[in-house]
From TrEMBL:
Protein name: 3-hydroxyisobutyrate dehydrogenase
Reaction catalysed by this enzyme: 3-hydroxy-2-methylpropanoate + NAD(+) = 2-methyl-3-oxopropanoate + NADH + H(+)
Residues covered by the 6-phosphogluconate dehydrogenase NADP-binding domain: 4-161
Active site (record annotation): 170
Pathway named in the protein's UniProt entry: Amino-acid degradation; L-valine degradation
Enzyme class: oxidoreductase
Highest taxon above the source species: Bacteria
Keyword DNA damage: no
Biological classification of the source: Bacteria, Pseudomonadati, Pseudomonadota, Alphaproteobacteria, Sphingomonadales
Entry keywords, A to Z: Branched-chain amino acid catabolism, NAD, Oxidoreductase
Amino acid sequence: MSQTIAFIGLGNMGGGMAANLLKNGFAVRAFDLSDDALAKAEAAGAVRCASAAEAVAQADAVVSMLPAGSHVESVYTGEIFDAAQPGALFLDCSTIDVATARRVEEAAQAKGFEMVDAPVSGGIAAAAGGTLTFMVGGSDAAFGRAKPILAAMGKAVIHAGGAGNGQAAKICNNMLLGATMVATCESFAMAKKLGLDPQTFYDISSVSSGQSWSMTSYCPVPGVGPQSPSDNGYQGGFAVGLMLKDLKLATQAAASVNASVPMGNAAEALYQLLANRGEAARDFSLMIELLEGK
Ligand code: NAD
């Protein structure tokens, strides 16, 4: 018999993810605070529910894709723990702080449930296309149960260790991405001022030791490298506001364990500047315009 999944939070990411569960034979019971999101989920084949409690009451597993830790904690502790069937598995795919992820997973365990944190790499297109990468924290047993559900929504499902380690992997990865994007942008901006053609610099650096994903898969200079948001006026892609959110999570986590993250701190300050210029919705490779002094 097919498994029933309660899906909580069907926004930009969750909407596509729920549609992929449906395509892969899962039944989906949907709840979101937004009517619009619920209508889209219903059109994709989900059952529309009036509350999180109603959605989870008849579900084998719960997947959540919510904005932040406060939403996750209040939905699980306020509704899901009390309404879920015994033995239901919980999968939180939101990007949230490590401490909240660990606290909610501990609370789930205390109530006799298994839970994983399973944040994703990949944006809205990957969510819609079922090509996300999931970084999963939780016990071996919980991971084993979560894997087939996550595999229906992604191309890779990786066990990162115990509770909260999925979130740890996600924020460390995105801090690295933020820092390499800033470094790539400042290098292109400086190369230009020194009279070096951006395409020529790309041809050299992309096969030299300065190469990174930010350069060769997501070049911030329009017309250079493979197609990327820079070729589309920095629309779509990964928003400045979301990069800033992840950098804040990363630097807060760093402070909580006394880790020195000078590059992460610098990237956070620079993305804050970009957001303060009203650019939170545009792609994060727009950093090049800030560093070019535009
Ligand atoms: P979104 O704002 O589009 O969707 C969040 C949804 O949650 C909204 O539809 C909102 O109505 C709903 N919601 C909020 N509180 C709720 C509650 N109490 N009960 C039920 N529904 C509630 O955000 P998104 O872009 O889909 O991002 C979701 C998560 O995925 C975030 O944690 C984000 O950091 C992470 N993420 C996003 C991207 C991206 O490119 N958008 C990429 C990777 C990870």
